[in-house]
Amino acid sequence: MRKIGISLALMIGLLFLHASGTAEEKIVNRLPKYGQVQFDLQESVVLKEIEGDLNFQFGRAIADLAVDMGGLYILDYDRLLKYDAEGRYVGTIGRKGEGPGEFIQPRRLFAREQGGVYVSDRGRFLHLFGSDGKYVKKVTLEFTISFNASNFFLDRNDHIYAAMMEMSESGPKTTLVEADPSGKILKKFEIVRDRNVQIQGSSRAGVMGGMVHEYSERLCFNRIGHSLLCSGTNTSYELSIFDLEGNLQVMFSKEAEAIQITAEEKKSLGPSAVFPAHRPYFSDILSDEEGRIYIVKAKSLLDKTPKTEIDIFSSNGHYLYGTVVPFRPRIFFKGSFYSIEQDENQLRMIKKWTILNFRELKLD
User: Fold this and answer.
1) Domain presence at residue 360
2) DSSP character for 145?
3) Per-residue pLDDT of the chain (364 residues; tens, 9 = 90+)
4) 3-class DSSP state of 82
């Protein structure tokens, strides 16, 4: 193992920031300010798959999960299912096809604060469905959302924030963009450094750099509160916080060990997989309503235990806490994590993990 500091690539990346974005501060974190925190968790099963009941079967895989004040949405690659807060079936939204309210290859979800849900389709279109499940509109994007990015989101004015892949003389680059409600690009936030994997054709998903897998280098990002965005490439523990105008607010990093990918791990993914120089530092970025940032740390894909380490940062880049939870968090909503798990019969279920000591957490 070797220690990775702040990379030259990140400094070079500043040259590509939006013209109004300047780095005012750069924070290097070592130890959490308040040490390790143990969450007092209340575990509950919100929804469970029922064999033979089409309204409670999720297909071959759960593509994405979203929660809003009205309930829970599950995307299973073929359809979108809605349940209320108690896990009761509300209805099936949309279906496979090319007509109004239909989708071809749905990938991700975003639940709007004002109600309704957006579905990303092939990365080229967004379909909006209302709180009642009725089809509202289709947005054709001026760009393609990168398959190998973490998500997309919209602000209160339905401006779209997503990652797109661009080609340059030095290879592919991932760019964060803001688009208007019609899908037209308004600005580019940041061009992330070149991917550090060799180009190896295309996978079944058609993604440059070989098969996308747990160790693929990718851009992770999420909104922080209503006015900020946190982004970072998972193979470098260096992150940036922007306002939604594209101005860089702060850059922060954490000293961490670079763990080499073992031969056994590589073998488990097969010959078509292309690997970065070391295991990614994190797998996702989440946030809570207070503006704290949860960096979900990556672990060996051979580790089948549910235990997951999380680093918690303030909205200005300070390392507040380290913690360990007994599940893999997928989303955070109103003081609770949500996870996708399986029971002893391999039936999938959605669990809610309410943090009972949430209000005791410090902001900085």
Assistant:
1) no
2) B
3) 444 433 433 433 333 333 334 445 689 999 999 999 999 999 999 999 999 999 999 888 898 999 998 889 999 878 899 999 999 999 999 888 888 889 998 989 999 988 899 999 999 999 999 988 899 999 999 999 987 776 899 999 999 999 988 777 766 778 889 999 999 999 988 655 444 433 333 333 334 445 678 898 888 999 999 899 999 999 999 999 999 888 899 999 999 999 999 999 999 988 888 888 999 999 999 999 999 999 999 999 999 899 999 999 999 999 999 999 999 999 999 999 999 999 999 999 999 999 999 999 999 9
4) strand
Nearest to 106 by CA among 72, 78, 139: 78
CA-CA-CA-CA dihedral for 66, 245, 177, 285, to nearest 10: -40
Distance CA 317, CA 248 (A): 12
Q: How many domains does the chain have?
A: 1
**Rounded to two decimals, what is the model's pTM?**
0.88
Burial 241-260 (b: 16+ CB within 10 A, else e): bbebebbbbbbbbbebebee
What residue type is 320 in one-letter code?
L
Give Dmax (Cα) for the chain.
Answer: 57
Q: Is residue 337 part of a domain?
A: no
**Domain range for residue 271?**
2-30+144-329
DSSP string, 5-49: -S-HHHHHHGGGS-TT-----EEEE-S-TT-B----EEEEEEEE-
CA–CA separation, 288 vs 105, rounded Å?
A: 29
Please name the residue that has the structure tokens 């509950």: 44
The torsion angle over the Cα atoms of residues 256, 334, 110 and 300, rounded to 10 degrees, is 30
Residue 111: inside a domain: no
**CA–CA dist 127, 123 (Å, integer):** 11
In this structure, the number of other CB atoms found within 10 A of the CB of residue 177 comes to 22
205 token code pair: 């998903």
Residues 348, 240: Cα–Cα separation, whole Å: 35
Query: Does residue 119 fall inside a structural domain?
Result: no
Tell me the two tokens of residue 185: 């690009």
